[in-house]
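Duplicate of #3305? Posting structure anyway:
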């Protein structure tokens, strides 16, 4: 069993978006976004199959930017130094959208963040590994608009798929 902390770094290309229902226009609207997700985390091995920790990152998806701070759990599916793993990150991500935040009557905020990865790690030297995998990211946000008759809040739910690569050391 490892006793020292593991530094995990990842970068991903992501594509996805959200489907919004706009009752005023009686239709669903698909908003597609692509961009990147990069993060770094510190993990503590509990045994040969499980690591727990936390970290932070940045998601840039065209107009939206989120900065997730998360708890992380990583489970290895074999005893080998190279092999498949499952990773879950969950936390909160403040959000920014320059288009909406430029108006005095609108406020764009982030929300709950969840990231799941099924990946493979390959041992390079010592305890360093190269890793790659397929990710699913769920990011919540909200847009608050103040108008003369009151305020309107729209909840946004973004779903992204990503291709991840990175290193652990």
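Output from current build:
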């Amino acid at each position: 069993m490892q006793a020292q902390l593991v530094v995990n770094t990842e970068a991903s290309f992501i594509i996805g978006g959200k489907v919004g229902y706009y009752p005023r226009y009686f239709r669903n609207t698909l908003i597609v976004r692509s961009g990147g997700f990069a993060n770094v985390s510190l993990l503590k091995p509990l045994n040969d199959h499980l690591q727990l920790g936390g970290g932070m990152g940045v998601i840039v998806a065209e107009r939206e930017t989120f900065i997730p701070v998360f708890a992380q759990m990583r489970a290895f599916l074999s005893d080998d130094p190279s092999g498949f793993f499952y990773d879950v990150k969950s936390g909160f991500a403040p959000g920014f959208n320059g288009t909406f935040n430029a108006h005095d009557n609108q406020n764009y905020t982030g929300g709950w963040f969840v990231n799941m990865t099924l990946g493979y790690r390959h041992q390079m030297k010592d305890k360093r590994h190269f890793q790659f995998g397929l990710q699913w990211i769920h990011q919540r946000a909200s847009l608050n608009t103040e108008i003369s008759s009151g305020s309107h809040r729209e909840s946004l739910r973004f779903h992204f798929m990503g291709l991840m690569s990175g290193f652990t050391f």
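Confirmed duplicate; merging threads. Residues 64 and 107 are 13 Å apart (CA to CA). The longest strand covers residues 27-45.
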